[in-house]
Amino acid sequence: MVQHGTAQRLSDGSIPLTAGKTGTAEVPGQRDNALYVGFGPANSPKIAISVVVENGGFGAESAVPIAHEVYKTYFKKAKKGR
User: Fold this and answer.
1) How many other C-beta atoms are found inside a 10 Å radius of the C-beta of residue 49?
2) Where along the chain do its domains lie?
3) CA 19, 9, 32 angle in degrees (round to 5)?
4) What global pTM score does this model have?
């Protein structure tokens, strides 16, 4: 999903290649919950994340941007040696 699917936003070059899957969880009478689970870097994982946005709609539209910010923060700190 990261290279050729709904989570392509994570392949913008600002972070190492990660792997993950978007999803939705239907809520009768409400907007769907948005989901994203992933890990990175894809070839040697150091971080795993799960994002759930209540009534967030599709995972790609609200959960992936949050995951992107978490990854950017993590990899920036890891690069600095923290």
Assistant:
1) 17
2) 8-79
3) 85
4) 0.91
The answer on pLDDT for 63 being more than 80 is: yes
* Structural tokens at position 10: 């994570």
Residue pair 38/46 in contact (Cβ under 8 Å)? The answer is no
CA gap 4, 20 in Å, rounded: 11
Q: List the one residue out of 27, 72, 28, 26 whose CA is nearest residue 49.
A: 72
The whole-angstrom separation of Cα 26 and Cα 17 is: 29
Q: What is the tens place of the pLDDT at every residue in 5-51?
A: 899 999 999 999 999 999 999 999 999 999 999 999 999 999 999 99
* Bridge partner residues of 39 (DSSP): 19, 48
Which two tokens mark 52? 């759930």
Number of residues that make up the chain: 82
